[in-house]
Amino acid sequence: MFSLNFNDDEDLFVQLYEFIKAEIISGRFSKDMMLPSKRNLADHLGISVNTVMNAYDNLIDEGYIYSKERVGYFVSPVENILNIKTKNINREISRENNYKYNFDLNKNSDFAFPNTNFKKVLNEALFEQKELNERDDKGLYSLRSSIKNYLKSARNVDVSEEAIIISSGMEYLFQILFYILPEDTIFGLENPGYREIKNLLEMNEKNYIYQDIDESGIVIKNKDITSLLITPSHQFPTGNIMPIGRRIELLNYVQKTGGYIIEDDYDSEFKYYGRPIPALKSLDGPDRVIYISNFSKSISPTLRVSFMVLPKNLLEKYESIKPFYNCPVPNIIQISISKFIDEGYFEKHLNRMRRIYDDKRKFALSFFEGDKLYRVIDKKAGLHFILEIKADLSEKEIENAMADRGIFIRGLANYYEGEIKYKYPRMIIGYGNMSERELEEAIEIFKEIINSLSDK
Amino acid sequence: MFSLNFNDDEDLFVQLYEFIKAEIISGRFSKDMMLPSKRNLADHLGISVNTVMNAYDNLIDEGYIYSKERVGYFVSPVENILNIKTKNINREISRENNYKYNFDLNKNSDFAFPNTNFKKVLNEALFEQKELNERDDKGLYSLRSSIKNYLKSARNVDVSEEAIIISSGMEYLFQILFYILPEDTIFGLENPGYREIKNLLEMNEKNYIYQDIDESGIVIKNKDITSLLITPSHQFPTGNIMPIGRRIELLNYVQKTGGYIIEDDYDSEFKYYGRPIPALKSLDGPDRVIYISNFSKSISPTLRVSFMVLPKNLLEKYESIKPFYNCPVPNIIQISISKFIDEGYFEKHLNRMRRIYDDKRKFALSFFEGDKLYRVIDKKAGLHFILEIKADLSEKEIENAMADRGIFIRGLANYYEGEIKYKYPRMIIGYGNMSERELEEAIEIFKEIINSLSDK
Along chain B (456 residues), what's the average pLDDT of each consecutive run of 10 residues? Predict the structure, then answer.
């Protein structure tokens, strides 16, 4: 019954355990069958009683056998064992198309990550033994405090640490918002605007209505809308800045509906002349603005850190659900970002990046200057501009032709819900992701392709 | 009109900008009022035309004024400005009760964080320029690959990298599961068991039914249940190990319902004798087990990294929603953990922690040995044991008396839905969070309190 050859690769008790287990699974050792006593089996196999005991103990733990005191060991009643086997899911090769050049406006430079200084604060963070072990669902107090100071000085937003909640990407902040916003919220969304948000809202069975923007931003025509999701500092993707008049109009509107404005301040750090545009939140007397921002563009998208400022009444609601959504950002990263801000690296990094991006912007723009085929719609901010091509081409046609040559580029229509209202194709030139050399190569290929397409 | 005293603290153009803005907000400069020309104002204030231009440009950007070409600058029609002011939410002091001693079973040691080695891999990670900039919604391939190898060797779970999804805490994994599990899922939950999950399910309007456990684990009495959330390796909080018979029974059950078993393998690393209990997933021939685990107990809860393995058909569903939930874990942390595993630090750390926790466990147990007032329910695994106190006391009474003396401790009843079925109070002794000295102090006070309570 126990014809077992031991090898040297594994502990004896494990080999015995595996053997008995296999016999039971195969059905060769049947239900309630009595196993040899430990001493008998040890003698039979020429191993120690201890080894047998170890194997039996493990089999008991896992329920393969059971023991009756002073009687012996028996095979457990394991009714019908299904097709027990380890299943190996085949690895599906789903490699993304690797573009050589990428005009995606959601990326920033590989070389932008502030390695040296971030390494410095990371190492400092490792010594913050106490903070490394703290837990706070809103995020560490130290980081909220750094963000508070940053918001005050850079965005003219004066809030308390208590009102700040740190999380991962925007979708995780919305996960919280979905629970604390009024149940009957109907979101007004900018058209054109972010597309991902639509899917997120639909997946969560939330109501939304797209509203066209004009030069000043969203225009509310459908009065069913109760809350707004807008990008006042730099409309995404057109780059328009919302003037004070429209800002106040919208604040008045949500005060009447009892709703909120969600202000997505996604790239306000990048304005290349004059003062930064103040956040709408800085005007928020009625306390109805939820301010959302992140460190994706200002430090790195791979840090996956965003944050929001809640109005007081939403904060109170948040306190009641807080325990179910722990802050997903590792402490070490929170401490590092806090130090990065407090020790002045953040400002230095932003200044450096502003210069780099401004240089790239000017460099990219220079290729289209004086060329009547192109009209640049440039708002002097952010990490992209819009390029109108005065030719009878469709954006899809251009996108496809570019993809064939290894260039990722999107037309503005991708950000529209419903019909587009402009004539000529408008392509989005995100320049943050490429070096000047890459930009030059990419734009030259781009122009070559446009020429050959319009010649046809 | 422009009685303005400049100071040295700020740029002149900013001071001018602020002055004009304040005049407009206050209503002193009224709608459509014409402003002086740049030259006139410059002369009047004794500053450069450039400075005035900068101020005007910013005011135009923000919509406070507008310009008519060849006519001049005018105050914008900003209808009724509401109570514009910066609102400062008072900081609410909500300091948690700071306990001196903590028997919480969800914490582990401050001194457990593997500082030196984690610092090493963190620094190495900073050089992985390419990976630092990669994006993968499931988590970085390198970390999934490390987890795959770990699961194979340590948990006997043989899956592909493609089936592994990395996220933050368990609640974020559930956020994904809620979208991909069948809509009519009715979850069967262990009683006693995790309490947080109940709230999460309710907030997401999911159906669930508590089922009592016996020595072998959950017993399904209500056949409406379609899917199960269980802790087979080490039932939470009783510590029971689910025997093979029950495992197969449950696998057969969900195969019939078309549902899934969510296996929470939360602390399987900590078993102090014999072989680790294999994961239920290792038996998953029918491919109906969702395996969930995390690095909270094995590295640090402050890393906030968990992961799951999806069965093939759920994986296909996941692929369709993937874009809306980006992996929330910073790349630098993912790379570090991957290196931590691959370079052998993880195993070393686990071995070290197993020894530390085993020592602590024995140390804590030694205080109750031979004392007839206490019965220890110890399953020789995990980071806690259950202590039954044979006295006519309620758990609440004990909790409160302990809290008064600075000790955080919970009774088992906190993990029960409905009536409890045992007579004497059962307290949970989580020993992972304290040093031996603290344990000694805490247990001595504990025993003192129990004595004085039972004397009354």
Answer: 80 89 85 92 91 90 88 82 41 52 72 76 86 87 96 91 94 91 96 89 92 94 97 90 90 95 89 80 92 88 91 91 81 95 92 89 93 88 91 95 93 91 93 90 96 86
pLDDT confidence of residue B109: 56
Residue A114 pLDDT exceeds 80: no
H-assigned helices in B204-330: 244-257, 312-321
Helix residue spans in B307-375 (DSSP H): 312-321, 331-342, 345-366
The reply to whether residue A62 touches residue B88, judged by beta carbons under 8 angstroms, is no
B132 vs A285: CB contact, 8 Å cut-off? Answer: no
Q: Predicted confidence band at A79 (pLDDT cuts at 50, 70, 90)?
A: low
Q: In whole angstroms, give the CA distance from residue A18 to residue A178.
A: 50
Nearest to A278 among B62, B126, B199 (CB): B62
Q: Which of A421-424's residues contact partners 24+ apart within 8 Å by CB, and which partners?
A: A421/A212, A422/A388, A424/A388, A424/A389, A424/A390, A424/A391
Q: List the Cα angle A107/A111/A113 in 5-degree steps.
A: 80
Give me the pLDDT at residue B11, please: 85
One-letter amino acid identity for A361? Answer: R
* Whether B304 contacts chain A with CB within 8 A: yes
Q: What whole-number distance in Å separates Cα of residue B185 and Cα of residue B258? A: 9
- The reported pTM is 0.80
Q: What is the largest CA-CA distance in chain B?
A: 98
CA angle A346, A348, A354 (to 5 degrees): 100
What's the whole-number average pLDDT of chain B? 88
Residue from the list A88, A282, A325 with its beta carbon closest to the beta carbon of B171: A325
Report the candidate in A65, A60, A61 with the shortest Cα–Cα distance to residue A76. A65
Give the pLDDT score at B253: 95
User: Does B84 contact chain A (CB < 8 Å)?
Assistant: yes
Interface contact A287-B87, CB threshold 8 A: yes
A115 touching chain B per CB within 8 A = yes
Residue A388: partners with Cβ closer than 8 Å, 6 or more residues away: A374, A375, A376, A377, A422, A424, A425, A426
Query: Hey, is the C-beta of A328 within 8 angstroms of any chain B C-beta?
Result: yes
DSSP 3-state of A280: helix
A98 touches chain B (CB under 8 A): no
Say if the ipTM goes beyond 0.85.
Answer: no
Q: Which A positions 21-60 lie with beta carbon below 8 A of chain B?
A: 54, 57-58
Strands B101-102, B164-167: pairing is unpaired
- Averaged pLDDT score across all residues of chain A: 88
Tokens matching residue B188 = 């069967």
Contact yes or no for B79 and A248 at CB 8 A: yes
Q: Do B79 and A249 touch (CB under 8 A)?
A: yes
Exposed, middle or buried: residue B9 (CB in 10 Å: 0-12, 13-18, 19+)?
Answer: exposed
pLDDT tens digit string along A164-204?
999 998 889 998 999 899 999 999 999 999 888 888 899 88
Domains parsed from chain B with CATH numbers = 12-93 (1.10.10.10), 117-342 (3.40.640.10), 347-454 (3.90.1150.10)
Q: Would you state the pLDDT for residue A23?
A: 87
Residue A54 identity:
N
Q: What residue type is assigned to position B216 of the chain?
A: S
Is A328 in Cβ contact with B169 (below 8 Å)?
Answer: yes
